[in-house]
């Protein structure tokens, strides 16, 4: 009996059983207690999320149009519309500033389920999360785009390479910058991993697309070194 009491596995299972009772999980948006069947977001708040439904489009989406005349992508997809003060901002805030990396994984899985049958993404070889500077990743504890990519990878059974691209200098936040200022802030600011000749189609994974300056810079850097690689975009949100 004493031997059983000192087995870590028993205490771990016991903690998992009683922790929801002692520390009930709350909705990331309204902070109300979640039901047993709910995860991260309650059913009511989940209904407030504004989905793009790009997976149903037969015409070019807003994300497609954003890059017209700038850079060519094989496929593009964003799950949600981002609006300040709305539910999507609360989700992204929880992911980036409230130490909730599993939120990124959960919504990444939802992206994976949405695009699984789309022709544009059927031959994906690799998922590449948009990199952040190591200092920022150290402070946050993770790269939010990498968490989203991990969720997508789990559903699509596609490899993820967080080292394919690296940010080489710490730039200021893009939040308050205009389109051209954002471009100046990111161009030639990434190091590309060598030895990817077998990769044919990659998807850059981002948390939110605003002007698209970072994604454009990354795509141009990749195309310069690997002109035959097809590039797509997958994002949790796009500004409305």
Model regions low in confidence, pLDDT < 50 over at least 5 residues: 19-23
Number of helices: 10
* CATH topology tier name of the largest domain: Rossmann fold
CATH architecture classification name of the largest domain = 3-Layer(aba) Sandwich
**Apparent shape:** globular
Order of secondary-structure elements: HHHHEHHEHHEEHEEHE
Amino-to-carboxy terminus distance: 61 Å
CATH class categorisation of the largest domain: Alpha Beta
Mean pLDDT over the full residue set: 83
| Rg, Å, rounded | 20 Å
Q: Residue share in helices?
A: 25-40%
Decide which structural class fits the backbone: alpha/beta
Strand order of the largest sheet: 1-7-6-2-3
Beta-strand residue percentage: 15-25%
Number of domains: 2
The main sheet comes to:
5 strands, parallel
Tags for this entry?
240 residues; alpha/beta; Rossmann fold; 2 domains; five-stranded parallel sheet; two-stranded antiparallel sheet; 16% strand
Describe this structure in words.
This protein is 40% helix and 16% strand. It has 240 residues and is an alpha/beta fold. The chain starts with a helix and ends with a strand. The relative contact order is 0.15. Mean pLDDT is 83; it is low at 19-23.
């Amino acid at each position: 009996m004493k031997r059983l009491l000192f087995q870590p596995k028993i205490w771990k299972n016991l903690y998992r059983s009683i922790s929801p009772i002692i520390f009930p999980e709350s909705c990331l948006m309204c902070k109300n207690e979640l039901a047993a069947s709910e995860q991260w977001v309650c059913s009511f708040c989940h209904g407030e999320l504004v989905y793009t439904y790009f997976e149903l489009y037969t015409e070019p989406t807003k994300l497609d149009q954003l890059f017209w005349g700038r850079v060519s992508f094989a496929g593009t997809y964003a799950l949600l519309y981002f609006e300040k003060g709305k539910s999507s901002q609360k989700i992204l805030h929880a992911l980036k500033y409230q130490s909730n990396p599993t939120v990124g994984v959960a919504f990444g899985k939802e992206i994976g389920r949405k695009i699984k049958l789309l022709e544009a993404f059927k031959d994906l070889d690799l998922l590449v999360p948009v990199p952040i500077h190591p200092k920022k990743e150290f402070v946050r504890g993770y790269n939010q785009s990498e968490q989203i990519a991990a969720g997508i990878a789990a559903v699509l059974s596609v490899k993820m390479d967080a080292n394919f691209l690296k940010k080489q200098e710490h730039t200021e936040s893009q939040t308050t910058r205009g389109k051209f200022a954002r471009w100046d802030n990111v161009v030639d600011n990434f190091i590309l991993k060598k030895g990817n000749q077998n990769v044919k189609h990659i998807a850059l994974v981002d948390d939110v697309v605003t002007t698209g300056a970072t994604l454009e810079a990354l795509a141009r850097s990749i195309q310069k070194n690997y002109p035959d690689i097809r590039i797509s975009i997958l994002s949790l949100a796009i500004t409305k």
